[in-house]
Amino acid sequence: xxxxxxxxxxxxxxxxxxxxxxxxxxxxxxxxHLHLKIxxxxxxxxRQLAVLRRSMQEWRETAEQ
Length: 65
Ligand SMILES: [Zn+2]
Known about the structure:
Elements: H1 9-21, H2 26-38, H3 42-64
The chain binds zinc ion.
Residues 9, 12, 35, 39, 41-42 line the site of zinc ion.
């Protein structure tokens, strides 16, 4: 795959979900950061995932009590 500093939405969404499982490399992080600055769709996905992750965490904490 040819390296480009600008990701497609497809590549960005792959990184967004990968970030849930593992640490991104600095190149991946910068690429994602740049993409989120120029894209109008992906920042919404990131926000929704953050909300989802937070409620999952809260649910897990409540379930463990
Ligand atoms: Zn995008």
